[in-house]
Design goal:
Order of helices and strands: HHHHHHHHHEEHEEEEEEHEEH
Strand order of the largest sheet: 3-4-7-6-8-2-1-9
Largest sheet: 8 strands, antiparallel
Helix content: 40-55%
Distance between the termini: 32 Å
Number of strands: 10
Length: 413
């Protein structure tokens, strides 16, 4: 079908439908048995009604996918358009179903224990898709209602850490430490995330306190430059740290005003890491034809939190036009890459970007197997300070093809 995001949304919707079997087996969306109370609360009744509509919609969506798989090439364009429209409808319906489940569970948690399973699986799915803000809200609802599933505490702790709620994250980890419960499954990848959170908690609590104070003052001053990235997955507004990285910001604004980023892609999007863009070659080997000096070695350099905008480099003073946006705190990058801004609107767009890694491969057809990258349709300056933005640059020679291959092997970060 058309586009990676549509496929991701389908997998999310289908996953929730499968997980909802727990709810269905408990009688959700069906009339109560003879030995059950004849009436349910209006909140539960609303959920049951919406769930039936959602279930019918999923059946229709599956049918379109079957028709697409069996259809002739001339039919597939029409089916693709129909499918995409249905996914948009499904997104809205999905939100209604989830909110109805939350309302019913919060009003009567003991009477709706089956919905706790449903909501817990949604929280896990949101966490896996790196929709951390929603994952935290969902898991926190379960924790607040003292759900018996301790994985809710894991979801809340990991999501809170990702979004910078370090005190909340630490509190949930303390509960888990007292129980001695670890994540189930041998070599569970989330356990590595948990261990990382534990190891870096003290560092980030101190770092965030400093960052919070800086951001508060920046809000009061209200004069930092801002740039809007209009992508095919939504808009993101970036606030640029001119106070700590003036030359990097001057370079970025200069390129934006020249239209350099318009039409370029997010060529490299790695899970639990970052989205990288700004390469005119679309593979990580290109730039503006010059380099700028790093500003991450200054004592007042900013650190990497969720939504930080940072320069991609191959070493000291090799940055140019490529940048990346972090999905979560990344201590390993602090002091090595120049953080020159943060996302102040549109963080949800990050989870929608197509994941891909254009790394070298022995397979000659590897590039053809990569999903289509998402694009920056337009980048424009929303505001800037009243002075010229002329970066100090370092002239460089255009690399030959062999050098480009070596550069691609050692992707910038």
């Amino acid at each position: 079908m058309n586009g990676g995001f549509a496929m991701r949304r389908w997998r999310r919707i289908a996953c929730w439908a499968l997980l909802a079997g727990l709810v269905l087996s408990a009688g959700c969306g069906t009339p109560p048995a003879a030995d059950e109370p004849a009436e349910r609360s209006p909140y539960r009744a609303e959920f049951d009604q919406l769930f039936d509509v959602w279930r019918s919609f999923l059946d229709e969506l599956r049918q379109v996918r079957k028709e697409y798989a069996a259809g002739e090439p001339e039919q597939r364009q029409e089916l693709t358009e129909r499918y995409d429209q249905m996914v948009k409808k499904g997104n809205a319906l999905e939100s209604q179903v989830v909110q109805a489940a939350v309302d019913a569970y919060v009003k009567e948690p003991e009477e709706n224990e089956d919905l706790a399973f449903f909501l817990m699986d949604i929280a896990r799915t949101l966490l896996a898709m790196e929709e951390y803000e929603d994952a935290l809200r969902m898991s926190q609802i379960l924790v607040d209602n003292k759900v018996g599933d301790y994985s809710a505490y894991y979801c809340a702790a990991i999501a809170a850490f990702a979004v910078g709620e370090f005190d909340v994250s630490e509190r949930h980890f303390q509960v888990l430490d007292k129980t001695g419960i670890r994540l189930a499954g041998r070599n569970n990848p989330l356990q590595a995330v948990v261990d990382e959170c534990h190891a870096n908690m003290a560092y980030y609590k101190e770092a965030w306190e400093k960052e919070r104070k800086i951001r508060e003052q920046e809000t009061i001053d209200g004069d930092l430059p801002r740039v809007r990235l209009v992508t095919n997955k939504g808009e993101m507004d970036l606030e640029l740290f001119e106070n700590e990285a003036p030359n990097t910001v001057a370079n970025f604004i200069s390129l934006v005003e020249k239209g350099f980023y318009d039409g370029l892609t997010f060529h490299r999007v790695l899970p639990q890491s970052m989205a990288q863009g700004g390469c005119p070659n679309g593979d990580g080997t290109g730039g503006p034809g010059y380099a700028i000096r790093c500003e991450c070695y200054q004592p007042n350099h900013r650190l990497h939190f969720r939504g930080s905008v940072s320069m991609a480099t191959r070493g000291r003073d090799t940055g140019g036009s490529q940048f990346f946006i972090t999905f979560r705190p990344s201590r390993n990058l602090d002091g090595g890459q120049t953080v020159f801004g943060r996302v102040v609107r549109g963080l949800d767009v990050l989870a929608r970007l197509q994941q891909r890694d254009p790394k070298p491969s022995l397979d000659p057809n590897y590039e053809d197997t990569l999903p289509k990258p998402d694009k920056i349709l337009e980048a424009r300056v929303l505001r800037k300070r009243n002075h010229p933005y002329d970066p100090k640059v370092i002239p460089i020679e255009e690399p030959d093809e062999i050098t480009k291959q070596i550069q691609q092997e050692f992707m910038p970060f």
